[in-house]
Each structure stands twice: as C-alpha cells, then as structure tokens.
Amino acid sequence: MKVSDRLAHLIEDGNDGWDVFYRARQMISDGRAITELTIGEHDIRTDPTILAAMDLSARQGHTGYAMVPGTDLLRDTVAARVEARTGVPTRRDNVVITSGGQAALFAAHVAVCNPGDVALYLDPYYATYPGTIRAAGAVARTIQTSAEHAFQPRASQIDAAADGAVSLLINTPNNPTGAVYSPETLNQIADICQKRDLWLISDEVYDTQVWDGTHISPRMLPNMAERSLVVGSMSKSHAMTGSRCGWVVGPEHVISHLINLSTHTTYGVPGFIQDAASFALNAGPALEEDVAAPFRRRRSLAVEILNAQNTIRLIPAQGAMYLMLDIRATALSGNEFANALLDTQDIAVMPGESFGKAAAGHIRVAMTIDDDRFSSALSTICTFAAELADRRAAE
User: Fold this and answer.
1) 98 vs 45, 62, 350, CA distance in Å?
2) Could you give the CA distance from residue 299 to residue 320 in angstroms, rounded to a whole number?
3) To which H or E segment does residue 325 belong?
4) Rounded Cα distance, 369 and 72, in Å
5) What pLDDT shows up at residue 14?
6) Nearest-CA neighbor of 302 among 289, 291, 316, 288?
7) Among 229, 158, 234, 239, which Cα is nearest to 200's?
8) Whole-Å CA distances, 83 to 87, 90, 95
9) Do residues 253 and 242 touch, judged by C-beta distance below 8 A?
10) Rounded average pLDDT over 319-339
C-alpha cells in the first residue's frame, strides 16, 4: 500500500536539510561532547513567572477543551499587541490561535492556495517552507536572493516569478540570514503584491529580535491589511518553543475559515498554555528584552571576533538569533564545511544548503549557548576556516 503523493513528495529531493543536526544528536547520544550551534532553541528556558501562570491556570481547571479559535483573552491580547505595534485596527475576529508558528504557516497557505496553485517563497528559507507549501497542496516556487545584496529580495526577481502565483511568503527578521527587510524592500514587495494580486504571508516570529534597523509589518503598509496574513508565535519572543502557541492575523473572513480548519485539525491549543501566553504578552517589553538580550550580546561578540580575521565573511546580522557566515574562501560547500567541522572540532552548525541554493557556501550559526562557549566555538570555527583556506592557497 502506498501513501498519498502529497506526503510522498513533501520533501522534494528526499533530504530535509537536517542531516548534520541528526548526526550531531546521534554523536551526543553516543557519549561525544558536541557544541551545538544548530537549532533556534534558547539556552535560557521559559521565565518562571510564565510557568507559574501556566501552573496556576492548570490547577484552577483550565485543562479541558479550550475554545477552538483561541480564548477570548488571548485573541484580545494578540489583537491589542498587533494594533499597538502597527497602528492597524485589529480585533479578536482578526486572530486565530494555532499550535505554534509552524501550524500558522500551514494554515495560512491552506487559506489562500487551492490545490495546484503556485505559492512563492524566498531562498534562503526556513527549512520547512517548501514542504509546508506542498502539504497545503500548492506548488512551491522559489525566488533566490543573494549574499551580495545581503539577502534582501529584489523587486524585479519577485515580479519575474509572479506569473500564475497566488501568494508570497516572506520572513523578516529572517531565518536563516539575519536580514531585516528595509522599508524600500517592503514597499516594493507591497507594490508587487497589489499589482500581481498576491496574498502576502508574513512570518514575523522574530519581530522582537532586531539589532539593526526597524521591523515593519507589511500589514501596516497602504492597502495591504486586506491581503496580508501575519504569522506570530510565543516561541522566540518569550522562549516558549515547547508550548506550541502561535497565531494568524488577517482579514475577518479568512480567519473565520481558519477557525473551521482548526476544528478539523488541532481542535485548539490547551487553555492553560493560552493563559500563560496572555500573561507573558501582558508582562511588557522588559521580559521580551530579557529574552532577546543574550542574542544581542553574542551578536556583538561575534562581530568583534569576525572582524579580527579575514577568511569568513559575516552577512550583516540585523536580527534573529543566527549568524550567516560566508565560508567560500575555504573552497568547501556549506555541507562539506559543516561535516568536517563536526568530525574534527566537535562543533555542529547548519550548512547553508539546508536553507536553499542561495545559501550554498555558507553556514548558519545559532547564538544559543553561553557567551564564553559561544566565543570559543566561533573562534575555533574561524581558525578552522583559515587553515582550510591556507591549505587551498598552498595547493
């Protein structure tokens, strides 16, 4: 018996991009001490005050079925937060609560794509994007950005790829590149979406991690609220990755259909998780700044270390918890470099190729271990790259 074609072709080439990560985890299971700089998992855990709110809610009985669209409290809290940050009037009916940002990405594409429709996304991309689009029954079409333009998308490339498309997925601040899209870039994207009649799906889960520039939600641009679906999450902003609590913000008629989708898939998010999320969002910006502070600090450490060498080039790290490093001077691919680094230095990073063709010859480094170990690991990576480059020059 065969599985459906949709599942069989979820991962187009049979490789989900996580080989180095899986190999590192197996080495750890085998007892080897590996420094992990792979996934976007905070080295601090969920704040104790949030956990206390979660515990109190559960002990008070909010452990049964919660409202499928999300609790009124959390939907109102998200709506108020979005309106305050964007200036765009936002009500409870503009919000549906989902099982994390990943479920929100899937839901958003199901909402606007019919089977066989073309859905656009930008390369480099978070590793699940193409599979998420295919899972929704759409055809994933990539648009390459380039390191030479700091991975800012070019309007001409988006326009050229837009024939027959119904949606465009963007992510700023960006994983894996760290790019924060400029006002000029976002205005050009908005113009193309209106000219080409595209839905814009905006993944904004890193909106509290901006080191340079300003985060702009495209929903706040002229005439974009009615054609934008914004994905948000508690995972990155509040170190609640395991709580699986996210949302989609969009036009009311779309949200009403997404509530129906939730009824037939997840049947909602646990009430005590939603109560903890409401508490966290109402705790104010200081808590979010505390969660973001280690990454801001390590980004500064990284700039200092990388400025002291000339083999690895840092793509401008404007936001998010990652560094995108250009290691092409070593003459190795990102896959080759990452595997060699793991085997010889016991350091695990993600190859750029895990995130698309545009990131070939790069690696992504997650800034997710304590400052001293992070600085030591990054210095080792630089030394390792310099040795490879010197060996290449001598050949």
Assistant:
1) 21, 17, 28
2) 10
3) strand 322-326
4) 37
5) 64
6) 316
7) 229
8) 5, 5, 12
9) no
10) 97
Strands of the sheet with 35-37, listed across from one edge: 35-37, 347-351, 362-366, 322-326, 313-314
Tell me the per-residue pLDDT of 384-393, one tens digit each, with 9 for 90 and over: 999 999 988 8
Average model confidence (pLDDT) for the chain?
A: 96
At 151, list the tokens: 């991975």
Question: How far is residue 389's CA from residue 324's CA, in Å, rounded to a whole number?
Answer: 18
For residues 330 and 189, the answer to whether their CB atoms sit within 8 Å is no
Strand partners, 167: 119, 199
Cα torsion at 241, 242, 243, 249 (round to 10°)?
40
pLDDT of 150 strictly over 80: yes
Of 173, 85, 147, the residue nearest 329 (C-alpha) = 147
Split at pLDDT 50, 70, 90, the class of 107 is very high
Q: Helix (H, G, I), strand (E, B), or coil: what is residue 98?
A: strand
Task: For residue 263, give both structure tokens.
Answer: 């009824």
Express each pLDDT in 363-389 by its tens digit.
999 999 999 999 999 999 999 999 999
CA atoms of 125 and 171, how far apart (whole Å):
8
Helix (H, G, I), strand (E, B) or coil at 171: strand
Q: What is the pTM of this model?
A: 0.95
pLDDT of residue 298: 98
Question: Would you say residue 262 has pLDDT above 90?
Answer: yes
The SS3 of residue 265 is coil
Q: Is-contact 260 88, C-beta < 8 A?
A: no
Domains of the chain: 5-45+286-394 (3.90.1150.10), 64-283 (3.40.640.10)
